[in-house]
Every structure is written in structure tokens, then in C-alpha cells.
Amino acid sequence: MYAIIETGSKQYKVSVGDIIKVEKLPLEQGQSYDLKNVLLIADGQNILTGSPYIENASVTSSVICNGKEKKVIVYKFKSKKGFHKKKGHRQQFTQLKIENISF
After folding, report:
1. CA 94, CA 23: separation in Å to the nearest integer?
2. Would you write out the chain's pLDDT as a tens digit for each of its 103 residues?
3. Nearest to 98 by CA among 63, 49, 55, 50
4. Which of 62, 67, 4 is nearest to 33 (CA)?
5. Which among 80, 61, 56 is positioned nearest to 19, based on CA atoms?
6. Residue-range domain boundaries for the chain
7. Interior CA angle at 54 toward 57 and 17, to 5°?
């Protein structure tokens, strides 16, 4: 059984026991979180689709940790002008473990 969920304007294919990284959510470590934006649920023979979401469907997950990704370096320069600009960015994320898929 798997589901396709939407969070942080991105879609993820998840099944029970999966660990995913999503955009940072305002949750603490160990908290439970229900993802309500379920687009599709498949259980082997049957496929349920929503338009756009399935009503009364949810994916229960628990927060493993909050963190930051590896640093991405943005470097700009213009040749023959002496212009150099270096900037770094670390995207924040929340790591979730999928506990249950219900519909």
C-alpha cells in the first residue's frame, strides 16, 4: 500500500515505514502529524484518486528531527570588472517517519 501526498508544494510517494524529508514544519521532535493532502492511495488492486484531494484520508507520521541541508554555494562574478560575490544557503527541513495510511 502506498499514497501520494502533498506538503510544501511538493508531492511525495510514501508507504508505511518510509522516512522522508519535507519543507520545515513548526513541530517538535517526537510529535505526531497528520498529512491531510492525500492525492492518491493504492493498495495493490484498488486505486483511489481525489480531485484534487481524497476526503477523509490522512497519512499519520511522527517527527524524527528538524535540521538543515548541506550548504549550497552561490557564486557570481563578472569578467574583467573585478566583481565577485559569494553567498551560501542551507535549506531547513523536517524529517518524518510514516506510521499509518488511512482512508
Report:
1. 6
2. 999 999 999 999 999 999 999 999 999 999 999 999 999 999 989 999 999 999 999 999 999 999 999 999 999 999 999 999 999 999 999 999 999 999 8
3. 63
4. 62
5. 61
6. 2-102
7. 45
Residue bearing cell 521532535: 29
Cis, peptide link before residue 52, omega less than 30° from 0: yes
Cβ proximity of 98 and 17 under 8 Å: yes
**Calpha distance 28→64 (Å, rounded):** 9
Distance CA 27, CA 65 (A): 9
- pTM for the full predicted model: 0.84
The span from the CA of 10 to the CA of 18, in Å, is 17
Q: How many residues does the chain have?
A: 103
